[in-house]
């Protein structure tokens, strides 16, 4: 597509991430080797945290090689200094200099690098990448040689002033604190209210260091000094501490908790914030060193992300090393893969389990990312493409989703065949509560700098429906598709106005000035133009180089073009113009300079093949209205089996049943023949139409697209799992459940909250009460007196809220024992045991470290549990009453909750590996829900209960997090609730006691003050309905009314 080019004259240097680290393997099952493609990786925080999570470019490559080479002999403070400090002490500078000598000696050529000690872990994908990296390393070395020169220090001070000016103009001091407070989630608002965060952030920008440093810390760090200038400034949000999970600086964790610091500073102080970050840096670095000693390789590219993806796509399909793309914008250098890395004889990954695109979608656009990156995903249900975008608005989230996809989101995603899983589930274990509270607080303080971070996990639709390997063809009418593409085109370029030499063999060679914008060479612009646009009268055609004022301030080119004046309107600025026939300045070639062919773009077709079926086949057609909205999908099932055709011809009854959000079951006769019709996205039966063609032997079903907020078929579609082989090849590997939208956590590495300190646990009430979206809160208020609503999803959230409140002791007598009880279906169906409440900083949330025993008939009749069940009657146990739908939902989510924290391996005898097995194994009463592989796989001293050794052998470890609605589906937080949050801090001492214990409301339903419980005079409610709903929890602590719950 023809479009203007953005001139990157003024570049922020993304040396340090401005968002907390996440695990890159959070959607990959435990035990599966992962190939990961990182696009736009600014620093190493995600790599280090991923190593810690799984434990049991020049600057980044320099640091990682240093860490692997000398990580076991040097203290981690030195690594922190080298990677993060703007100024170094003498000892840190010597470490840096010594390592540069090793790297320069090893990087003369790709051959030298492959023969060096670094090549076993670190590789280069192209020769030009090594050349570029070595050039920067050489500048590092030259900078160190000048470290004692006054001019070197003066130049660095000047460069830092430009960075600080850019930061001050972009984000004020208060706005910077909002960015830092995000890293402290779920203690974000507490961090905002403390001075420690502001001091810790400002200190790095003012002094160039963090915490306490040696007195001789004045040497400009070449890892920054070699890059920063007037035209290359630090990204405004850069700061070492906010790459880490700073909740431990504000939370009270137990004495033996992971990541507990020995810092004696007051919680929330600047020293405590820095200590929390440095403690995590040390642990993550140790984990990376351990991982690097195994079978780990990092392959580096210095190239444009989209060009690299298209080149890898082309190589995947053809084996060729070049797709005729330039290595990056504003260069004529060809992007060509290294044959010694990507030759047929090498096992270099060409498809990936994970494609992480950082924040590139904000600059490149999500559509470009999806088209270039998604074909590189492996055909596995855990294969995920991550995008990250920052939205500075707190309203209109659904419209924002349409905006980033340049059209109706459901329509575009369905046609591309890829969606964020969370869109259809409308559920996530990743909390945005602090994001929204901080954004609202920013609006209240007239600050516009608190953007909301969206992380989207995109998966191919075939995996969402559990039909991996059966890619579906979707037909669309020509006029509808043209209309949709035209609308997308207008949205993409809303702010832009597109305005022997006769031989095909004519080529142009260009010598590139490596100084780029700092040099004095001529600007050479190359672009494609349709041949038809040239016509025959070439003497009348003008060729112009123009500057679009909307994409680049003209003042940035003033040094190159002094006479250039800043325009007063939005008209393009003509920098140079001449005739097409000006042979001295205009060259017409078949291909771009330096290329011997046109850029090759692969299509979005599936890389696998559709599984053949002998008795039927299906095809689908999308119905798109004039506005571009996908309304219905028509699925056609062609029956080819002789028996099926006979049944249709003999007018046997045809029953069309909905058995899952994606699948209709076509039943002929008395289940004589049963065929699945699997739609590419969730659809509903209400409003569907069926057409039966008995002579032609096909059945058509036209079904409306499901609305994630209203469709009953999606009510229990919360944390779905699917069965798949644990390796990419379907012929090998163990069959395991794969959760589709709940992130993996390593419970043993997460900090443990001290629940004895109730004052510091107040945040939990808000964090968990915000599980209910604005829509759900209204439905909750309208619930019947029974305390149960008709939605299994909402009842499930009520049960989770109960568990968090009682496990923490914030409401009711503290207990970690819960019974899921159906009074009309046999009583207790499962027991849950909470060992600890852990901080989950990567997901801005918390997790219950728990175990579950789903009862089966065989288990009870076997008698082994009897000693424990007898003791259970005397224990403090909370009985959670459920109905049919919620009980089924619990059983459906248990596999995902077990798999997300699994640190053991499924055995060959696993029940999931049995042909015809499902996940869960069954939802029927008394039947097995989970496989037996995880039973008894618990840490020592998991929980202190009588006869626990008896019960533990039946218990499987699970991780339970608050379950939230999704921002781009509906309003996550009721605006009226958020506006009432005091800016001084959420959930701090004294605040929660002034709220409704059940719903968190600040006043009575009819207005006025909250009402106190008539018995204990302690807790407060906004209405009699909320008091009734809360009674099953509050009765455990309410004076004489308190009683033990048991069975």
From TrEMBL:
InterPro entries: DUF4470 (IPR027974), TF_DEAF-1 (IPR024119), Znf_MYND (IPR002893). PANTHER family: DEFORMED EPIDERMAL AUTOREGULATORY FACTOR 1 HOMOLOG SUPPRESSIN, LD37257P. This is Putative mynd finger family protein. The keyword Glycoprotein does not apply. SUPFAM superfamilies: HIT/MYND zinc finger-like. Pfam families: DUF4470, zf-MYND. GO terms for molecular function: DNA-binding transcription factor activity, RNA polymerase II-specific; zinc ion binding. GO terms for cellular component: nucleus. The keyword Zinc applies. Keywords: Metal-binding, Zinc, Zinc-finger. Residues 996-1038 form the MYND-type domain.
